[in-house]
Give the backbone structure.
Amino acid sequence: MPLQPIDALIEQLKGPKPFDATSAIRLYEALKRLSDYLLKFGAIEGRQLATDAVIAAINEGNQNWSTNIVFSATDFNTVAWTAGILRFQDGSRANIVAGNTGNISALTYIYYDGSISQTALLVTSDSSKIVGDRRRLVCVAEESAAGQEAYFLPLSGKLGINEDNIGDNSISTDKIQANSIVAGKISAGAVTADKISVSTLAAIVADIGLITAGTLTGALIRTAASGARVEIDVSNGFRSIDAAGIILAQLYADGTAPKFTGPSSTGGILDIIQGGGVGTVASFGGNPASDETYLRLALPTGGTLRVSIGAADSGGTGFRLLRIPN
């Protein structure tokens, strides 16, 4: 007698009346043993099984499955997941609520066990607990270094690495190849002053605008590269240079006497201004055309003019003019 489909065989065994719970369990066990025996010895062919009869008998842990649950790292030792659905090959589903691992310190397994809960994912660091008839491993997680994000690898659902799926602070310094970040990959204005720390900027040639600094040290500091300008450097000291390139004033850094050069027309070479900028007290000048050189002294209003040439006032040789009345 040829074998009949499993569904037809079940109908024959059920008889005219429904089975009670105990009889149903016994029937299930008998059929399972029979199917195992027939499959073992190749006695059942595909055409003799009703559609999906085998799938319906396979437990959730061995069925194909998919999910829309999204996993993410909360910090360096916590992985969380959104609410979602676990769908199994036989058409059944489990509605899973959102949750997280809590603080983990070892390789951690996030899994589903329908015999314990059909709404929550479970967490364990014991790999033996994820194996069973109704158990399904959903995600693996592990703690990372402090300041980074925890590692996690879902077995289904949202996978892959792109700009949306890289967790904040998840790329550490040792994961970036040396000299791999080029100028074209840095947004204009993205690098701020507090992120720059260098001992020399010799290669920089640019108009950097307003600079505020406590100490500015350099080989040459000048107001312009040519024309009228003021320069400061270690060899020449402080120099004031006109548009023709003539040094009008120079103060040396090594103690050499200051040098002053008059303008090309009659006028003061050096003016000494009274305190507060009230007026000129003394003016040194000359006329190059007539080889004239002069020293002009101006008496401050209501004051006394004192001029000493030679020794100090307290003694020695020299000349001193104590007072010129108004």
Observations:
- The first strand starts at residue 65 and ends at 67.
